[in-house]
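dumping this here before i forget
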Amino acid sequence: MSQFARTARRWARRRKLLLLVAVIAALIIATAVIFATKPAVPESSTSPTPATTMTATSDTVSPAVVHPTQETKPVLARDEPKTADYKTLARAAAEMIYTWDARNSTFSAVYERVRSWWDVLPDGSNPLPVLAQEFQATGVTAASFASLSGMHAYRTATVVSSACDDQLAQVKTQPAPWVGLHVCTFTLKVTEHQIGGGNSYSAPVSVMVNCPPAANAPADRCAMVGFYASPDRIVY
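structure:
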């Protein structure tokens, strides 16, 4: 009996040991299953930025401010009178167009002076190619001006007679397209001075002037918007 009891006790101890091993193995397997079924965390994921940080960042950005575009005032040309009297400006422009001095100016400088008086309209009805064509019709070109400078030549012009708007038959037949646009035709006494003497002659020129209340004119003065010196374009 004692041998059987000892054997029984040994089997009992073995059963306990096997049961303990089985429990440990079950725990290990369960842990492995849990970790295997847990979703993987992406490598690129980062911890979210705290809301307080985002708020602080947005508070430091100033709202965009859009300033209204300010239209620049038309700049007066050198010696151009600031006047709302179209006759005064047209007369000054007519004399300026025919006046130059080759002794101290280049052709480009003379042309640019005339160009600075010419106010190009927004609708493009008075393009600069017309200015270049009519300026050459005053009797001077880049080639001729080069030879005139060698003769110390200069030219002056004085208004002898004038007629404006309804005094001109062509304007009566076809009035100006808007209120504030005026046309004056002048007869000039032009004198060309150079070494060896001078030469005087008469020359007509028609000057177009734009004044308030025209929407495309300067607010407080008139501006020259064109002139004709070609014989077939003079307004009579």
